Amino acid sequence: MKKLVALVAVLSAVLAHADNYPSKTVSIVVPFAAGGPTDRVARDLAEAMRKPLGDVAIVVDNVLGAGSSIGSNKVAKAAPDGYTLLLNHIAMATMPNLLRNMPFKVDSDFEYLGMINEVPMTVIARPTMPAKSFKEFREWLNGHKGAINLGNAGVGSASHLCGLMFQNALQIDMTAIPYKGTAPAMVDLMGGQIDLMCDQTTNTTAQIEAKKVIAYGVTTAKRLTVPALKDLPTLQEDGLKGFDVSIWHGLYAPKGTPADVVAKVNRALKIALKDPDFIKKQEALGAVIITDKRIEPAEHKKFVAAEIARWSPIIAAAKEYID
Fold first, then answer.
1. What is the pLDDT of residues 99-118, one digit of tens each?
2. Domain 2-118+248-318 adopts which CATH fold?
3. 50: CB partners within 8 A, 6+ apart
4. What pLDDT is stored for residue 131 in this prediction?
5. What is the chain's Cα-based Rg?
6. Residue 24 in contact with residue 74, Cβ under 8 Å?
7. Which residues pair with 217 in a beta bridge?
8. With bands split at pLDDT 50, 70 and 90, how would you rate the model's confidence at 274?
9. Nearest partner of 304 among 129, 65, 36, 115, judged by Cα
10. What separation in angstroms does the CA of 36 have from each of 260, 301, 319?
């Protein structure tokens, strides 16, 4: 009888909480460094979601490390009350294969809240690279097998994942040079210490526009409309058939978060994605706002499952893991 009374009390508290949500500051955990592309998405989204959630304060909490698993695990283990959310990118689909010891389960330890955007990638090289076109670049790569340095922002980062797919598509092994973030990798690329990198438009557009690096193509199926990148061909145009990779972002809550709270956050997310200021900021970085059914929690989860299956053989072939 006592257990039944206690259960009723807990359920009543949860329902009351859902009715009053949100009544205090909401935290969005970003498992990457402040100032990076995912952090930028989170801060813009927090501002756009503030009013739809009842003018509540939304703060961004950067908890980085281990390919985004430390921050993600913090949310997975947090109270399922809607006050601790996770904003992560494609790492949600690659961690199950990259991490040797997963402290949580992507498919069962989170409530999926909806997708946010997709960010195209660009293949760029040091400014002293002699190749002027992708065809010439591909010839250069074929002629320098065993001596190609491919930079990335660390194992599990967007640039690491794109680099894996690029090597897989070309069937050319390259020496991966992991850095602690995009900034130091970009510095070395511009200085000629590494040969190439594949990274998000949020990181590369300014450097391409300033001609500090050479850009050879975009990773999406269609050309981009961003002024600085509109003349770049797609890698598919240049012969890499089926090459299509973007870094998407999604929003998550701990498993067990009340359905009413999930619905409220999803509704606020949908409103935020239509906010003109948010759209303007994202489009300036080359990001594409999600407008299809993946904005719905169930479709978001289905998409991530498909992405896990897509990346599994690529990561297995590379044999690059996070201990």
1. 888 899 999 999 999 999 99
2. D-Maltodextrin-Binding Protein; domain 2 (3.40.190)
3. 56, 57, 58
4. 97
5. 21
6. no
7. 123
8. very high
9. 115
10. 32, 25, 26
Cα–Cα distances (Å) from 231 to 101, 109, 120, 165, 225, in that order, read 43, 43, 14, 23, 9
CATH architecture of 120-218: 3-Layer(aba) Sandwich (3.40)
Candidates 187, 177, 172, 127; CA nearest to 157 is 177
Q: Give CA–CA dist 251/92, Å, rounded.
A: 10
- The fraction of the chain above a pLDDT of 90, given in percent, is 72
171 Rama class: left (phi>0) / alpha (psi -120 to 50) / beta:
left
Q: Domain boundaries in the chain? A: 2-118+248-318, 120-218
Among residues 176, 172, 124, which one has the least CA distance to residue 144? 172
List of E strands, 32-109:
58-62, 84-88
Q: How far apart are CA 120 and CA 201, in angstroms?
A: 6
Decide if 85 contacts 269 (C-beta within 8 A).
Answer: no
Alpha helices in 212-274 (DSSP H): 259-272
Q: Do domains 2-118+248-318 and 120-218 have the same CATH topology?
A: yes
By the 8 A CB rule, do 126 and 190 touch? yes
- Beta strands (DSSP E) in 9-109 are 26-30, 58-62, 84-88
Report yes or no: 157 and 168 within 8 Å, Cβ to Cβ: no
Per residue in 18-67, pLDDT tens?
679 999 999 999 998 888 888 999 999 999 999 999 999 999 999 988 88
CB atoms within 10 A of CB 84: 20
Residue found under tokens 């990259």: 98
The whole-angstrom separation of Cα 97 and Cα 312 is: 6
